[in-house]
Amino acid sequence: MARHVFLTGPPVLTPGAIKGVGKTTLIQKATEVLKSSGVPVDGFYTEEVRQGGRRIGFDVVTLSGIRGPLSRIGSEPLPGKRECRVGQYVVDLTSFEQLALPVLRNAGASGCPGQSICVIDEVGKMELFSQPFIQAVRQVLSTPGTVVLGTIPVPKGKPLALVEEIRTRKDVKVFSVTKENRNHLLPEIVTHMQSSQK
């Protein structure tokens, strides 16, 4: 049986915006249910940052509540730093790594069977500018006793190597989230995560 669970799904066009299909919301709900049943959960998710009704970037938020910038529209990179850009967003690699890497390294160090779930939302273009992040994700996926609940983007354009690696792993179950099924997937995801803990 697949040990890890990853959610994928397309962006949804809504009047005046492109919104996600609900992967992060599902991850947050699953995390709440798992924590309330006594399962140790750690990790991070990404969240839109809006100003005046307009998306200006994304933050990375750890499950312990620490928040920092992942990207912002048109931000200038710091002098001497290479620019990592996805569309109009400039990625703040330093901020991302300072928040995400310790969480992943702690999860990867647990090594006790049935001990923890690590949330990785998301393994996407912005996050993949970080080589240490790529290594940490591979390490967590290979650590006995750690189960990953994560998100990956829908394949579009040039394939992202780590995303395709995750998608084709034998120990990964990928759920495709749609507007139609997103409200019904939560129990299936939680049941799968709990059975992976055994």
UniProtKB/TrEMBL annotation:
One of its GO terms (molecular function) is ribonucleoside triphosphate phosphatase activity. It comes from the Eukaryota. Keywords: ATP-binding, Hydrolase, Nucleotide-binding. CDD domains: RecA-like_Thep1. Transmembrane segments: none annotated. This is Cancer-related nucleoside-triphosphatase. It comes from Capra hircus (Goat).
